[in-house]
Amino acid sequence: MDSATGNNVQRPVSLLICALGGEGGGVLVEWLVRTATACGFAAQSTSIPGVAQRTGSTTYYLEIFPVPLAQLGGRQPVLSLYPVPGALDILVSSELLETVRQIGNGMVSPDRTEVLTSTSRTLTTLEKMQLADGRASDQELLGIVDTYSRAHRAFDMSAVARDAGTVVSAVLMGAIAGSELLPFPRQAFEATIRQSGRGVDASLKGFARAFELVQKASIEHASPERRTDSSRTSADDAAVPQAISTVFSPALHDMVMLGYSRLVEYQDEAYAQLYLDRVARIQAAEQAANAPDEQGFVVTRDVARYLALWMAFDDIVRVADLKSRASRFARIRSEVKAAPDELLRVYDFFKPGVPELAGLLPESIAQFLMKRDKRRRDAGKVPLALPIKVAAHSVFGYVTLRLLAKLRWLRKRSLRYKQEQRMIERWLDGVTGGLESDWQVGIEVAQCGRLIKGYGSTNERGKENLLHVLDHLLVVAFDNKDSRAEAIRKAREAALADDTGKALDQTLVELGAPARPVKAQPVVWMKKPRGTAV
Q: Distance between CA atoms of 251 and 261, rounded to whole angstroms?
């Protein structure tokens, strides 16, 4: 009660919406204001442009007075333009880390704020830059939401929007309506969407799905669409080929099956069988090593994962195959939201250098080209490269990509294939050698497979780091086996933490191993264009 007037004091419902660029946050706020106005309530909104954290972020602040204007006797409520930290009633966010960022800004109050958030992630630049897995943990982020909010509801809004063929703004609208935190009926929200006149059916579909999910208590902590390893059924096991089920432990079936399928699709069944033989070799070595968790086969599982990725290395054939798949064109059409009767043009830009081209050729020809290119670079000239623009949507461009993809038969005769297989065998020998000395050493060497990633210079640098670790840390004298395993772990983490290699070199020296050799970098001379002032 207000002591001066004796009237009940009503405060506006405060709502903060966090959206990324292109998700329709402005449209959502407009819809909410229209809904409030149509229902006879006072509402006021403002937008606050944010930093380009990923695709740009914008926060939208909305206040709605919870009493209809008709009941105010001609009085007008005073509404704020900006959110007050700790004074929010509702926080709505389309991205999980963005939700936590607003919590870190102090916007959320544990005794007042209800949070509606998506569990989907759009990775930040810093997360993508990490050589290791730089992603923030979803479970930790959800734990923060749970701790600092009065109540929360979370589900994968991006997946709902994608399934409905709409944008996230419609899903956010459904989540807000389903929470019943605003004094409007569901029909009012849907009427506003219908009045928009664009993509109404898809928007209503996404709205309805989000409305239903928010009203289910079971989705407060996790998305029901996510399938965990524990959800595997006996039907999954029945689909495992006999070549896998009779050789490998049941704990390895899912990972080995994924790797086998990937390599059949990448090359052929013979290549996939080579993968099985290699994984079986590690499983036998782990069994002989008296592993503390033999039933889980941790070492073999790590090898099965990283080996499948390494054996399916990117080359010209692989890139051409991926670029010309029907699923890729369907994904692009879905992402740009092209109608079935609209033409879509897709251009791909390539700039293969001599190493990429030579990698697909037989060793004798490839070595000749590589030596010529090295002499050119040593002379201070720019490395040769072939800029290509391919219209993938055209008949000529598509046929060109498919012809390159059909060169799969040439891969096993190429220089790159031989180099990769030699390096893979070096790593596997290191794993088996480590297991023979101690199980912990074996698992640390197995996890060094994480160093092999990317393409071009990143991939080459990873292989050089791996080779240096195998050549030196496995032969350096340590006090005990635990010290050797710890040294390999430290070297691996240093290599993943710094792409320049300085952290790895420092760690190697501290461990008693030599730093990586310094690589000569030729000076490249550039001609000054004519007419340029000195």
A: 17
The torsion of the CA quartet 311, 312, 316, 322, rounded to 10 degrees, works out to 180
On whether residue 130 sits in a domain, the answer given is yes
Q: Return the pLDDT at 391.
A: 94
The chain-wide mean pLDDT, for the chain, equals 85
Contact (CB, 8 A) for 21 and 62 = no
Say yes or no to pLDDT of 217 above 60: no
Note down the domain range covering 180. Answer: 13-219
What's the whole-model pTM score? 0.74
CATH of the domain at 45: 3.40.920.10
pLDDT at residue 220, as a whole number: 44
Closest Cα partner for 98 from 69, 136, 64?
Answer: 136
| CA dist 270 → 170, 263, 264, 377, 412 (Å) | 49, 9, 8, 39, 11
Rounded CA separation 70/132 (Å): 59
As for how many domains the chain has, the answer is 1
Give phi and psi for 91, each to the nearest 5: -115, 125
534 vs 528: CA distance, rounded Å: 9
Instruction: Give domain status of residue 369, yes or no.
Output: no
pLDDT tens digits for range 451-488: 998 878 888 888 999 999 888 888 776 766 678 889 99
pLDDT of residue 34: 94
Q: Is residue 534 part of a domain?
A: no
Tell me whether residue 40 is in a domain: yes
Instruction: Compute and round to an integer the Cα radius of gyration of the chain.
Output: 29
Question: What span, in angstroms and rounded, lies between the C-alpha atoms of 39 and 118?
Answer: 28
Q: What is the pLDDT of residues 246-276, one digit of tens each?
A: 899 898 999 999 999 999 999 999 999 999 9
- Contacts for 528 with CB less than 8 Å, ≥ 6 apart: none
- State how far the alpha carbon of 247 is from the alpha carbons of 142, 244, 256, 289, in Å: 40, 5, 11, 18
d(CA 235, CA 468): 44
Please report, as a single letter, which amino acid is at residue 84. Answer: V
